[in-house]
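STRUCTURE:
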């Protein structure tokens, strides 16, 4: 990347404020956001930002470039909500006292544009020095009404994590008392390391990498309660979780994965929830601990798609219809998607970008529910534009073009900016 280009990225942050609406009427059962007056709800997913990497792999330069990516994309694609889908910070290297400062840097492009956001946390956010509960509190303290990150499931930090919650999205019409039109679910797949704990040998204590049974129990209870409050009115939903479920791995290694029907980058052997390894970190296998979560997702009527990050070299979507080698094999045709690696911290050299998701309010009311989604790249191009509808997985799309971002200068990266 040329110096002029870098400067351009760093200074492009003066975009128009997006149209924002959220419900504040006294009749709301629960605070939420609202479909825009154009009948759309648009989400930009920033994942794997990996702020706070050590200087020898980019450090502050990487963070500045990441802020440039966020600014560029928010100006081109002003959304109704940003989802920070895990690994906001590479927290292994960050001092406890410095975590707030990174959160402030990450949310600044959102605050300055008045864009609400909601986070899920990733395995790199949970470290010996960083608590995701502290991160959530900081988001709320600096974001006020813009920060939708919550903790709705109480329990041991190492079991339930932090970012388990939902955000209701209300209809654009209906004045001060609109109908509940959609739900966004957020789950904490944990992983990483226990906060301020060491084992008897003085080593960090690993945390399991799957959505806990207590969280699944809460999800099941909430779904039932919401269904009772809305008889004969199914509520369509989307879900976000940093580490993907095992069904994505079985699909990737099965006969149906195809660059024409699942367009996107497919360079990582998927790391998924529920992986156990031997003491040396070798001989890893699937321990099936994400099975209760997968069963609950598959049993969620009207769940349209689940979005994950974690695997920086994958950014396709699949239909979870019938996959042998997974439990359950049939995911009720839920779409499972990866996003694009947004941060300059973390591995992979593909052009940075962010998945955009648009839900058309009208499509939710008919039987033909569909979600439109694409990757917006930092160079302004679009990659992998697809429609997640009934025939997704059979529809054919043009192949995704491979482009890469210029490496960060510095030790271990070799090349000058
Ligand atoms: C914390 O931030 C301060 C100020 O930026 C910096 O000088 C210090 O090195 C950081 N500490 C660690 C351990 O990264
Ligand atoms: C799904 O979307 C694709 C792309 O727009 C389209 O070609 C296909 O006909 C749609 N399928 C249905 C059932 O509408």
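SEQUENCE:
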């Amino acid at each position: 990347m040329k110096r002029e280009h870098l400067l351009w990225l760093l200074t492009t942050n003066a975009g128009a404020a997006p149209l924002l609406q959220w419900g504040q009427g006294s009749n709301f059962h629960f605070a939420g956001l609202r479909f825009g007056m154009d009948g759309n709800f648009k989400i930009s997913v920033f994942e794997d930002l990996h702020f706070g990497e050590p200087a020898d792999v980019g450090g502050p330069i990487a963070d500045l470039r990441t802020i440039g990516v966020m600014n560029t994309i928010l100006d081109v694609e002003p959304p109704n909500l940003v989802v920070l889908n895990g690994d906001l910070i590479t927290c292994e290297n960050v001092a406890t006292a410095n975590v707030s400062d990174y959160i402030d840097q990450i949310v600044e492009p959102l605050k300055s544009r008045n864009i609400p956001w909601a986070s899920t946390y990733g395995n790199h956010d949970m470290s010996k020095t960083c608590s995701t509960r502290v991160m959530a509190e900081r988001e709320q303290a600096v974001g006020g009404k813009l920060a939708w990150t919550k903790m709705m499931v109480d329990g041991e930090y190492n079991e339930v994590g932090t970012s388990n919650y939902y955000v209701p999205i209300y209809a654009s019409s209906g004045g001060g008392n609109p109908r509940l039109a959609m739900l966004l679910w957020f789950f904490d797949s944990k992983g990483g390391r226990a906060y301020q704990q060491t084992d008897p040998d003085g080593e960090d204590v690993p945390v399991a990498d799957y959505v806990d049974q207590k969280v699944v129990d809460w999800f099941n209870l909430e779904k039932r309660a919401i269904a009772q409050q809305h008889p004969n009115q199914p509520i369509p939903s989307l879900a976000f979780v940093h580490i993907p479920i095992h069904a994505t791995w079985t699909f990737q290694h099965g006969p149906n994965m195809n660059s024409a029907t699942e367009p996107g980058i497919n360079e990582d052997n998927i790391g998924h929830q529920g992986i156990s390894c031997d003491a040396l970190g070798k001989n890893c296998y699937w321990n099936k601990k994400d099975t209760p979560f997968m069963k609950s997702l598959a049993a969620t009527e009207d769940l349209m798609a689940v979005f994950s990050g974690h695997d920086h070299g994958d950014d396709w979507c699949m239909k979870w219809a019938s996959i042998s080698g997974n439990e359950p094999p049939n995911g009720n045709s839920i779409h499972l998607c990866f996003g694009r690696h947004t941060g300059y911290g973390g591995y992979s050299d593909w052009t940075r970008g962010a998945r955009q998701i648009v839900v058309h309010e009208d499509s939710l009311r008919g039987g033909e529910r569909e979600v439109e989604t694409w990757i917006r790249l930092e160079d302004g191009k679009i990659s992998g534009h697809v429609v997640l509808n009934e025939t997704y997985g059979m529809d054919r799309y043009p192949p995704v073009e491979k482009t890469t971002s210029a490496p960060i200068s510095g030790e271990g990266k070799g090349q000058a900016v």
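REMARK: The CA atoms of residues 154 and 407 lie 42 Å apart.
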